[in-house]
Amino acid sequence: MALDSTTTAVYNEVVRRNPAEPEFHQAALEVLHSIQPVLQQQPELRDARLLERLCEPERQVMFRVVWTDDRGRTHVNRGFRVGFSSALGPYKGGLRFHRSVNLGVVKFLAFEQIFKNALTGLGIGAGKGGADFDPSGRSDGEIMRFCQAYMTELHRHIGPHTDVPAGDIGVGGREIGYLFGQYKRITNRFDAGTLTGKDLVLGGSFVRPEATGYGVVYFVEAMLAERGHSLEDKTVVVSGAGNVAQHAMAKLQQMGATVVACSDSSGYVHDPSGIRVDVLREIKQNQRRKLDAYPELVPTARFVPDRAPWDVPCDIAVPSATQNELGEADAIALVKNGLIAVAEGANMPCTPKAIDILHDAGIAFAPGKAANAGGVATSALEMQQNASRDRWSFSDTDKTLADTMRNIHSSCLITAADYERPGNYVVGANISGFLTVASAMNTLGLV
Ligand code: NDP
Hints:
- By secondary structure, the chain is α/β, with parallel strands linked by helices.
- It has 3 domains: about 5-55, no CATH class; about 60-190, 3-Layer(aba) Sandwich (Rossmann fold), CATH 3.40.50; about 210-365, NAD(P)-binding Rossmann-like Domain (Rossmann fold, 3-Layer(aba) Sandwich).
- About 50% of the residues lie in helices and about 15% in strands.
- It has helices spanning about 5-15, 20-35, 35-40, 45, 50-55, 105-120, 140-155, 175-185, 210-225, 245-255, 275-285, 295, 330-335, 350-360, 370, 375-385, 395-420, 425-445; strands at about 60-70, 75-85, 90-95, 125-130, 165, 235-240, 260-265, 265-270, 300-305, 315-320, 340-345, 365.
- Helix 13 links the parallel strand 10 (about 315-320) and strand 11 (about 340-345).
- Helix 7 (about 140-155) packs across helix 8 (about 175-185).
- It starts with a helix and ends with a helix.
- Bound molecules: NADPH dihydro-nicotinamide-adenine-dinucleotide phosphate.
């Protein structure tokens, strides 16, 4: 990616200050590249060192998490929480529990969140956190003790007006419940607005579990409509089999598409007659097993170990597992097989080279910070409901989510056209999010 002298200097400083954090460098490079035309039009932003400020997290917390397993053995993990920008509201973004978590991963996720949260228009800043804890194979008791140990430190740094965590990889409703329980115990306050993604009984919102996956599909629907297509009779491949993937698959099927493959960290399942989400739920949530169990329950399906699903022919691909999971060779295979659209359910799942290949082939490409913004948008709705001690109906909340996704889609398209990159959702999302947060930062003064 070619950068001009200003953005090169900012990028070099990001790399110098944040060594060995390739995911953060990758996320920063993409945004800096996209927003160059804005800087040419508004040189005053360079003088205010806005980019330098935007690329430096407001705060980063790293802490030791000590817990004991069911056999009484002691484990030591590292916990993180990065508050990247509070220009638009309290830090907001999920917690990831996965063995691959490190400061660079958390920083890239929090950085992406700045632009994503700005795109929602809902007054939320950007943060992210997690731990290098591997939840696979752990009992409920072990998960609870880990969550309690993690929250014992995190509680000092969060609150409804400061920083509001939610879920991400490895953190779903069960973990949010345990985290909230410990927060409530330590602080002596039932501050429901401190965490989102809560169970309904704790003040959670209807549609929050579904929101990221449903939102991706609403975005795809808008993107296809722009090109005279619909989801009816389309073949879709989704990666992942977790929260985002399952709800995306359910909504895709409701809208007339057939999802023929999905994956987890052990491999992928392929079934041309359509993947059954109820079976996925049984395997992943109830039995907490890997996808090799799927053909035991659905004999028409084939399990392919240790592979991503991108060689399965499809019209639409929805990568919804993790960062950099769809590379150059995958993009080439997808294009060769007749792909028309890609929407990122995960954060940064496509590598920069894969995105170039998709753009060059004229594929409609929706970046995660636009396409998966429905999750955090509905978290903001959960915060609103907690603040007013109210509960909105499923249908009203779902309608607000769908409207939000259509608005984000339009902002991306309009902004991309304004900056002479028609149809480029990456440029549209980055510039649109940047303009909002830059305006707030200018209004706040040098803080
Ligand atoms: P889950 O933990 O519910 O599911 C993650 C899925 O991805 C699992 O099937 C997991 O497999 C698979 N996976 C994780 N890491 C890898 C890997 N290295 N290689 C292959 N497969 C992998 O997480 P979510 O569905 O919540 O999150 C998925 C993505 O969506 C992440 O990028 C997250 O940041 C993003 N996202 C999530 C939001 C949310 O609301 N939850 C909001 C916006 C974005 P296994 O089960 O075998 O571990």
